[in-house]
Each structure stands twice: as structure tokens, then as C-alpha cells.
């Protein structure tokens, strides 16, 4: 198992993925994205795992993508391909997903929390899209579905920080807890979800995905796929 990803399959049907690079604020590298995709694809048809929690080790959820990899042009294809697959695997996962946001969630970490179904946040968490400052267009569309176009545009254009209380007030964060309670609260919510029949949960989640599927894919091709190839790497090469 990759040490940067710690996975636990609980007997109660909850799968937990922990981003485990606390010294790097859980920055997501190619290997981590591939591991997340691997486990999500393993669990999507599992009769045992019914809800997935993604959280971070230490005092951060995720600072976003590992920018050291962007310094190596030879990694361009792997960065793009792993990113495109990982985002879509999270979005299309057919069972409920909870983001246990235990600290800062910047850039790709903000996106990961956005793509989950529910968000449990510590009171000291902070959300932001600072990547706009170095030429990476944020993923706007799914964020706008949660908080509305006006707030999403503000966050994406300015890169300003959004504290946990404000994130809760605008409906981005579903549950706000003390720092040490993020995982326990996430598990509590997961158990409540699992009280429903598994086929009902799957139908409900698939309906939720289907309702936004065409809009998501059309937007994601522009906001992610096209942005990688036409905008982001142009700025990184300067």
C-alpha cells in the first residue's frame, strides 16, 4: 500500500481514505490520485462498502496538487491523465462520499471536497483557490451548484480564503465540528446514511449524478481538460 494513502475498510461498511502526507499538507501527487481512483473503482461494486469518507492526516485536508511535479515537463502526460481520471472517478462514484475536512483545503483539495456529497469540517478549516494566481483556472461549475454563481465566481476569481464558519453559513459545509471530531462526526453521518437500504442509496446517488452528468462533463472538459492543455502549462513554462 502506498504510504501516502492509508485505506481502512470498516466492518460496518464504511471505507476511509486518508491522505497521508502531513509534512506536505497532503498535497496530491500522481501516485495518490491513482490510488484514490483504484480504491474507488474497487469499492463501487463492493457489497460491503456502502459509504466512503476521505480525510487528511495532521492539520490539513489537502493543499492541492503537488506543485513539485509540475516542474518536470516529462510528467505532463501523467499529471494530466491521472488528474482527469481521478476527478471523474470521484464525481461518478455511485455511493455517498463524505469529505472530512480537518484543516486547509486549497486548490485541488477544495475541488476534492466540492466533488464529495457531504462535507464535515473542523472549525479551523480554510478553503481557497489560490491557483488562479499562478495561471491555473479553478473548477468552477460544481462549486457554483453548491454555493451559487455569485459566491463561486468571487472565490474563483479572487482566490480569497473562506473560513469554516462562512463556508458553513453559505451551505458549502454541512457539519461544523471541533478539530478533533471531524472523523468521528463523519463516521456518525456515514452510519446514519447506511441505515437506508443499499440499493436505495445507489439509486439516489445515481439519480443525483445523472441530473448533472451532461452539464458536469461539458464543463469539466473546458475547466479541467482544456485548461490543462491550453492555459496552465503555458504559465508553468514561463
Primary descriptors:
8 helices, 238 residues, alpha/beta, 6-stranded mixed beta sheet, 2-enoyl-CoA Hydratase, Chain A, domain 1
Describe what you observe in this structure.
This protein has 238 residues and is α/β, with parallel strands linked by helices. The protein has a single domain (5-183), classed as 2-enoyl-CoA Hydratase, Chain A, domain 1. 47% of the residues lie in helices and 17% in strands. The protein is built from 8 helices and 10 strands. It has helices at 30-43, 76-92, 108-115, 141-147, 149-158, 164-169, 182-193, 198-236; strands spanning 5-9, 14-19, 51-56, 60-62, 97-101, 104-106, 118-122, 126-128, 162-163, 175-177. The protein has a 6-stranded mixed beta sheet, sandwiched between helices. It is globular, with a radius of gyration of 17 Å. The relative contact order is 0.14.
